[in-house]
Design a protein that fits this description.
Layout lengths: L1 E6 L6 H15 L4 E5 L16 H18 L2 E10 L5 E8 L5 E8 L14 E4 L2 E7 L7 H8 L4 E5 L7 H14 L3 E5 L11 E4 L2 E5 L5 E6 L2 H7 L12 H4 L6 H8 L1
Parallel strand pairs: 1-2, 2-3, 7-8, 8-9
Antiparallel strand pairs: 1-12, 3-4, 4-5, 6-7, 9-10, 10-11
Length: 262
């Protein structure tokens, strides 16, 4: 079982960006793929966020659906801006199952400065490869969303995100930190532009299984849910692993904690 994560530079226009990304996926993603992950604003060009033309959206979704079907993989489409009936722009990300059907969808508001807002829905999907959480945009960098998904059983987080080009070292450390403190695998996809610093990676609690840095292309890493399950096993004497102490929680205390600070 293998995870593929795409990281590409933005071209002169959305059509050129989409062609470069989708052609690379078609040539690089093998039949061993279990998951394919694209970034936030996967086909956007420049730093000004605009809705993708409908024909381009449909063409991108069609090709990603074909990729899911032909590889038998789950594909996180990344996100792209879509215009709602009220005229507002929203980021939309979809998780496609191996049949090409949408098994999870996330929408987030686009803020006045062009960045993506946060939300309060954090889907977890049961797959033949384990339970998978899907995150979009800045939700990944907050404490609660990854924790909520892991408490719901997620063993792998698929993240359509982005890294600030000026803060890559700190955010790289945060990707690994989130994997460690939640005892979860993280497949993080980011894009390359003047504003976005790449940083795509597959992180395990023990360290990075693959990193793109600022290189364009597609990285891959093996995936074994049994390893995460092992690290989460109760081991109060810490003879086998140290991670259980980070994963273990008494969730019945949460209401008391929130009551104390309200």
């Amino acid at each position: 079982m293998t995870i593929f994560v795409a990281q590409h530079a933005r071209r002169a226009n959305p059509e050129a960006t989409a062609a470069a990304v989708l052609d690379d996926l078609d040539s690089r993603v093998s039949d061993d793929a279990s998951f394919v992950v694209l970034p936030e604003n996967a086909f956007t060009t420049g730093d000004q966020v605009r809705a993708l033309p409908q024909q381009l959206r449909e063409r991108c979704l069609e090709r990603l659906t074909a990729l899911a079907r032909t590889r038998g993989a789950y594909v996180l489409t990344g996100s792209w801006p879509e215009q709602r009936p009220d005229g507002e722009l929203t980021q939309v990300a979809r998780l496609l199952d191996p049949s090409g059907s949408v098994c999870a969808q996330m929408e987030r508001p686009i803020l006045p400065d062009g960045t993506t807002g946060t939300g309060d829905d954090f889907p977890v999907v049961q797959t033949p490869y384990g339970r998978v959480g899907v995150l979009l945009g800045p939700d990944f960098w907050l404490v609660e969303p990854p924790r909520i998904q892991c408490l719901a059983g997620a063993e792998l987080l698929l993240v359509a995100g982005s890294l600030d080009g000026t803060q890559q070292a700190a955010q790289r450390a945060a990707v690994w930190g989130i994997a460690t403190i939640n005892t979860v695998a993280v497949a993080f996809a980011g894009s390359l532009s003047e504003r976005c610093g790449g940083g795509s990676a597959v992180a395990m609690p023990e360290g990075f299984a693959a990193e793109a840095g600022t290189r364009e292309g597609i990285i891959e890493a093996p995936w074994d849910a049994a390893n995460i399950q092992h690290l989460r096993e109760p081991d109060l004497r810490f003879q086998q692993t140290l991670w259980f102490g980070l994963w273990a929680r008494r969730t019945e205390l949460y209401s008391d904690l929130t009551a104390q600070v309200s």
